[in-house]
Every structure is written in C-alpha cells, then in structure tokens.
Amino acid sequence: MATEIKVPVLGESVTEGTIAEWLKQPGDAVAVDEPIASLETDKVAVDVPSPVAGIMSQHVVAVGDTVEVGAVIAIIEDGAAAPAAAPAAAKAETAAPAASEELLTPAQTMSPAVRRAVLEHGVDPSTIKGTGKDGRLTKEDVLAAAEAKAKGPAPAPAPTPAPAPAAPAATGGARGEERVKMTRMRQTIAKRLKAAQDNAALLTTFNDCDMSAVMEAREKYKDLFAKKHDIRLGFMGFFAKAACLALKDVPAVNAYIDGDEIIYHDYVDISVAVSAPNGLVVPVIRDADKKGFARIEQDIADFGARAKAGTLTMEDMTGGTFTISNGGVFGSLMSTPIINPPQSAVLGLHRIEDRPVVRNGQIVIRPMMYLALSYDHRLIDGREAVTALKIIKEAIEDPTRMLIDL
User: Which listed residue, of 9, 277, 299, 375, carries a Cα 20 to 30 Å from 313's Cα?
Assistant: First the structure.
C-alpha cells in the first residue's frame, strides 16, 4: 500500500515552501515520524516527517521546487520492497557513480550540491565530520576537507637535470564560477531589507558607550549567576533591559506605522538577530520588559542553539516590536543597521575596544563600544531617537539605573 506524503501546515500566513534537501532517497527505509525532507519557508527551514513506516518509493518533486501546503511531495510504500523508479527530476538529483554511493552512510545523506563537491574533489565523505543539521555534510565541510587534503605532505622531489632556459610564463589560468540559486530564506531577506529601504525614511544616530561598569559587574557576579541560573551572564541581557527602559520612556521607538495609523505597544517584544546556517533570523524574546536577566539570557542561548540546529519555529519569529543586532561578535566597529519591518527601530551593537577618553580632565583608557540606532524618521523624530539611545547608553554605563527604573 502506498502513502502520499504531503506538505504539512507550516504556520500562520505561510502557504508554501521550497524543497531544500531530500533526507531520504528512493529505496531508503523510513520510520514513523522520521524526517524525509527539509523544506525552506520564508523564515525557517522545517523537516517534513513521515506519518508511516515503509520504504521511500519516489520523490514527486525535486530539490528547488516550490510546493504549497497540502501538496504531495513523495510516496512511501509499505514493507521492504525494491524502490520504485524515481521521476526524471528526482533521478537527476540523486544520480552518482556507484563507487561514490558506497561511501555514503545513513547519517551522511548528501544534498546534490554536496554530492557534486565530493565527486569533484575526490574526498571520502565517511571521513568528514558534518557540521550541518543532525551531523549532515555541508558543501563547506567538503571544501575544507579537500583543502586539508591538498595541503598534505608533498613527496620528496626526484633529482632533475640543470634547468633549461625558462620559457615565457603562461598568463591566466583555469578560472571557474558557480551559479547557485538563492535559497528561499535569502530571497525573503533580500526583499524585506530592500522594502525597508524603499518604504521607510531611514536614519541612524550614533553614540559611544563606556562598558567598564557592565564588564566589572559581569566579572564580579558571573560565577554566582552561572551557579544559580545555570546560564552565562552575557552582554545582551544588559542591553535588552536597557532597551526596555528606553522604549518605556520613548514609546514611538516601540511603535510602527500601519497605513495612516500608528500602533503603540504597552509591552516589549525584542527581536534578537541570530546567525543561522541559511542566513540571519530574528527570534523574539516575549515580554522582555517583564523578564529578569537570567530568563533573557536563557532565551537568547536557546535561540542560538536552535538556530544552529535549524529547529526554530515560525512562532519563534512572529511579532517583535524592537530589534537588537550584535555585529560586534563578528568584529564590526560601526554600522548602520536596517530596521526589521514593520518595526520602526533597531539597535546595533559593535565590538568593544580600549580607547582613550577624557574623565575628570584626565585622558584614560576605557573599554568603549559604538552604539547605533537606526529608525524610521516618518514616525520617530530625531530628538526621540537621540533620547532613546542616550537612555540606553546611560543605563549601560550605570547598571543600577536598570534596578531602580531610571
């Protein structure tokens, strides 16, 4: 008996997705609830589980195809029968020399791009540790292995006769290029960022912030904090709480424009920009204004782990009234972040570096960070933006303000 596998409901307002990778090939055994495909939506990549156990018979669609919720994408047969012939599109994406197929293990089912890289570079995938979801190989894993192989010890050169006069050196050389279709998530990111520039009157205000007090507080309490809450005390908790103070005092920064109306919020849901394998995602810390440092740090750590594993859900990224983006973890000194529509403001954090500053008439060295607040000038006046950023700066430079609501 054959069972049709259909695209599951993906979340509110999400009606379609793109087949990013087949996790089960025709002929593979499939267990109940075992993922058979990775489906990429506008916001997240989700696995499509099998509702039955059996043998993957065929792929009805190919990698890269766009499929709607409820569409049939695969057929699974009962028992352990030989696999049915796959459609032409599926055959094209799964074909490979038999010698290479023998190198595959169930944990290393490869996407077409990874399979192609394995064949091109002649590496053994069973010797490579995958960094993708569930330990799967990525193209970067294969390229790194190929590079390491190329850097292996070279054989001792054989004696050669005296060199002849050198011939003119050849110019140029083999140069390649690769055309890769943008992932659905990357296309969505591109559209949303461009729409933000087209629709909002973007402006950025800057300030610098002395991180001495926060760094001293972290150093003093990090062990006690970790022991009590089982989580590391980071900088994002301080900035999230400081942002809550600013948004409370300057409500426009926590609002957005809807047509000819302004929507104000009496709560603070902070979107935190997190790097994921397929691009930047922004899961939301709900009711950040009502949470303590420990809960905020736990939320952030959980988001980071699930972004890396590819298990964030649509609900995790729905909503948000304000965004914090930390480019400092990548070494950025200063930037002009783009707002996350329909939000009206985003706080950009940057790297901390020792710089000379003047304190009480003396030049001293302090750990400084540049802060950037990009905002929609249609809604937020310059005075409001500068005031909000100044409140954040003052709260970080004197963390006691966060305890006594100043």
Answer: 375
